[in-house]
Design goal:
The protein is α/β, with parallel strands linked by helices. It has one domain: Rossmann fold (3-Layer(aba) Sandwich), CATH 3.40.50.1820. It has 10 helices and 6 strands. It has a 6-stranded parallel β-sheet, with helices on both faces.
C-alpha cells in the first residue's frame, strides 16, 4: 500500500496546535497536517476514538507526552490505519500512586478556581531552566494553557491518571517508529524514551540537546530534522 501524506500531531497536557507550530511550518509543504483538540474527553480511549472518527483512512501519527498516550491507544484501536508512529517525551508506563496523588492535587487546585496557579507550578517541569526568562516561549505555553482552560485541564488530568499500561503494546508496533526526548526532560526523562525504543523493533531514538519536555518549541529545528527523516522512512 502506498504511503499517504496525512500527518496527525497530538498535543500534550495543556497544549494546543501551537505546540506544533514550528513543525506545521516545516512540514505542511509535503504533508496534510491535522492537530486534534484533546481537551473534550476525560479518558485516553475517548480521545483516541475522537481522533479516529475524524482521521483519514491512513496516516502518520506523532504524539507528545499525553499525546503519546493517545497515540498508543490509537494504535491499539486501529493499528492498520497507522503508517508510522512517533513518540515525543512520553512514557509507556501507567501512573504510579505518587503521580496520581500529584495530579489529584492539581485537579483540586483547578477546581478551587486557582487554575492560573497551575501554570507557574508546571512551567519549570516543561522547559529547560535556561529558558525560564524566555518570555516568547513561556508566553506561548501560558496561552495554550489558558486556551485549554480549567475544565479541559481537569478532564485531561483524569484521563492521564487512569490510562492503561502501554508496555505490552510496544512489541506489536511494526511500522516505522521514532522516539524523541529532550535531553533535560525531568517529567518524562530519557530512560522512559529508551524503554519505548527498546520495546519497538527497529525504532529510532533521538535525543534533542538543549530541550526539556517540549522540544517542538524549545529546539524546533532539531526536532523538525528528525521528524523529516522519519516521514521519509
Amino acid at each position: 500500500m502506498s504511503n499517504s501524506n496525512n500527518l496527525i500531531l497530538l498535543p500534550g497536557l495543556l497544549c494546543t496546535r501551537a505546540l506544533w507550530a514550528p513543525q506545521i511550518d516545516a512540514l505542511s509543504g509535503t504533508h496534510d497536517i491535522t492537530v486534534p483538540d484533546l481537551g473534550q474527553h476525560d479518558t485516553i480511549a475517548g480521545m483516541a476514538a475522537h481522533v479516529l472518527s475524524q482521521a483519514p483512512d491512513r496516516f502518520s501519527l506523532a504524539g507528545l507526552s499525553m499525546g503519546g498516550y493517545v497515540a498508543f491507544e490509537i494504535f491499539r484501536q486501529a493499528s492498520e490505519r497507522v503508517e508510522r508512529i512517533a513518540f515525543l517525551d512520553t512514557s509507556s508506563r501507567p501512573d504510579d500512586e505518587t503521580k496520581r496523588i500529584r495530579r489529584q492535587d492539581l485537579i483540586d487546585l483547578a477546581k478551587r478556581g486557582n487554575f492560573k496557579g497551575v501554570s507557574p507550578q508546571l512551567m519549570p517541569l516543561f522547559i529547560h531552566p535556561d529558558r525560564a526568562e524566555d518570555t516568547v516561549l513561556t508566553g506561548i505555553i501560558t496561552a495554550m494553557a489558558m486556551d485549554i482552560g480549567s475544565e479541559g485541564f481537569v478532564r485531561q488530568q483524569i484521563a492521564i491518571s487512569s490510562r492503561v499500561d502501554s508496555a505490552p503494546t510496544l512489541a506489536k508496533i511494526k511500522c516505522p517508529a521514532l522516539v524523541i526526548v529532550g535531553e533535560h526532560d525531568i517529567l518524562t526523562p530519557p530512560e522512559l524514551a529508551e524503554e519505548i525504543a527498546a520495546g519497538i523493533k527497529g525504532a529510532k531514538l533521538e535525543y534533542i540537546a538543549g530541550a526539556a519536555h517540549l522540544p517542538t518549541l524549545e529546539e524546533p529545528e532539531a526536532t523538525n530534522e528528525v521528524m523529516k527523516a522519519w516521514l521519509r522512512s
